[in-house]
Design a protein that fits this description.
Length: about 120
């Protein structure tokens, strides 16, 4: 049986939650204070997700890099695939804030979007 200690990040209280189980079968969840925290801990145990924030190469602007993020949290185990795609990207200015750079990146269902605008020079 696997035991995982999860620090809940849903609110600033940061409850420590212990999840026990195997693969996607959860046997017990202890330490949460509310239902949202219980769900967070269950998701962390079965399929942890993170919002991906990074930069891509930018051409035709004053800055060489454009900050980007995923439009939704993506499975942690797909982040290396996302980064492989991102490393091969080069975006040409102008770019608008929230512009979609890649749709459904690495099959995550999330888009890669610009975090700010970049004017062309
Ligand atoms: S379990 Fe509930 S109260 Fe505790 S940190 Fe998570 S959201 Fe906040």
């Amino acid at each position: 049986m696997r035991e995982q200690l999860v620090t809940c990040t849903v609110c600033p209280l940061g409850c420590s939650i212990t999840v026990k189980g195997e693969a996607d079968k959860i046997e017990s969840v202890e330490g949460f204070t509310c239902k949202r925290g219980e769900q967070y801990a269950r998701d962390e145990f079965i399929c942890p997700k993170r919002t991906l924030t990074t930069t891509v190469r930018l051409t035709g602007s004053t800055e060489p890099l454009l900050p980007v993020r995923s439009s939704a949290p993506v499975p942690k185990d797909l982040i290396p695939s996302c980064m492989k795609i991102i490393r091969g990207l080069s975006v040409a200015a102008p770019v608008s804030d929230h512009q979609v750079i890649v749709n459904d990146i690495a099959g995550t269902g999330a888009a890669l979007v610009a975090c700010r605008e970049a004017k062309a020079v």
